[in-house]
Design goal:
It is a single chain. By secondary structure, this protein is an alpha/beta fold. Helices cover 26% and strands 28% of the residues. The protein has helices at residues 21-26, 43-52, 71-79, 115-128, 140-145, 216-225, 259-271, 297-312, and strands spanning 12-15, 37-40, 57-64, 68-69, 84-92, 96-99, 110-113, 133-136, 155-158, 169-172, 182-189, 201-208, 231-238, 246-253, 274-282. The strands form three sheets. Strands 1, 2, 3, 4, 5 and 11 form a six-stranded mixed β-sheet that branches. Helix 6 packs antiparallel against helix 7 (259-271). It catalyses: prephenate + H(+) = 3-phenylpyruvate + CO2 + H2O. Keywords: Amino-acid biosynthesis, Aromatic amino acid biosynthesis, Lyase, Phenylalanine biosynthesis. This is Prephenate dehydratase.
């Protein structure tokens, strides 16, 4: 993959440099093969590439199985208009500890690591390197690269395979505290076309509550529960204009073309002062959405036909 020119509208942006978990997620996108890839420093830059037309889409991390939602991504999606999620991708996450050649584990006093990576390896680091200091890095790969740019850290937490990109010694492998850790990535674009439903889909939303009042959160949740729509993610983020004002990041099991999901969105629209539809897209795990048969599309269609008959004066069967 090569760096894209500034005007390359068919480029894809991702958190770089090469070797990051984000790049691993982008490698799962068939449409990205053969196109230029832009390595960027943060989520804001990735989304700016999309909104400006420098990239057709951007791959960004949105959730981790250990740390939960990625707040920088959630806040950016809430405030940057015109974006849609068109796909999701899962990447297993583990880490290695690397250092400049000649360094031993006993030499390590300071560790450079991305904050999320540090949180996922903190137990191992505390056990093997008690009393170490942490220097935050902008990315997992940059943590390793910085070992050769300054002497601030003795070692770095980095992705497996980093020694193929930088001349580092691997001091330890499998240092993640949870071997089953997974990061969920989403591909974001300006496309208004919604991927067709597959029966194994997700719908992502950002919902603001009305003015702080008793029962407003319950009213939001009832829009889903009364229609048999399961939520796979519900996280709150401050709106930022006043204390006590929050928006909710919501992932639903289902597609906007599913009658039960569409009806829930209509309920939200009537209830909430601001609903941001982020997209409906195939689930990365390809697990079919499960729901009770009383929420089948045909049930909603029959109910509308029944009401239409009442309004038109048709005789009841």
């Amino acid at each position: 993959m090569t760096d894209a020119a500034a005007d390359a509208t068919d480029a894809y942006s991702y958190l770089g440099p090469a070797g990051t978990f984000t790049e691993a997620a982008l490698k799962q996108v068939p449409d990205a093969a053969g196109h230029p890839w832009n390595p960027v420093n943060n989520v804001g830059e990735a989304l700016a590439d999309v909104t400006s037309g420098r990239a057709v889409a951007a791959m960004i991390a949105i959730e981790n199985s250990i740390e939960g939602g990625v707040s920088a991504t959630q806040d950016a999606l809430a405030t940057v208009p015109g974006l849609r999620i068109v796909g999701e991708y899962l990447v297993p996450v583990n880490f290695v500890l690397v250092a400049r050649p000649g360094t031993t584990l006993a030499d390590v006093r300071t560790v450079n690591a991305h904050p999320v990576a540090y949180a996922q390896t903190h137990g191992w680091l505390e056990r093997e390197l008690p009393g170490h200091a942490h220097v935050p890095s902008s990315s997992n790969v940059q943590a390793a690269a910085s070992l050769f740019e300054n002497d601030v850290a003795d070692a770095a937490v980095a992705p497996p395979g980093i020694d193929a990109h930088h001349p580092v010694d691997v001091l330890a492998t499998g240092i993640g505290d949870n071997p089953n850790a997974v990061t969920r990535f989403v591909l974001v674009s300006r496309s208004r076309a919604i991927p067709p439903r597959t029966g194994a889909d997700k719908t992502s939303l950002i919902v603001e509550l009305p003015d702080d009042e008793p029962g407003s959160l319950l009213a939001m949740l009832e829009q889903f529960s009364t229609r048999g729509v399961n939520m796979s993610l519900l996280e709150s983020r401050p709106i930022g204009d006043a204390l006590g004002r929050y928006r909710f990041v919501v992932d639903l099991d289902g597609h906007i073309e599913d009658e039960r999901v569409a009806d829930a969105l209509l309920g939200l629209r009537r209830f909430s002062p601001n609903v941001i539809f982020l997209g409906s897209y195939p689930r990365a795990d390809k697990q079919p959405n499960e729901y009770h048969s009383k929420y089948d599309d045909a049930v909603y269609v029959e109910a509308r036909d029944w009401l239409r008959g009442l309004l038109s004066g048709e005789p009841e069967a």
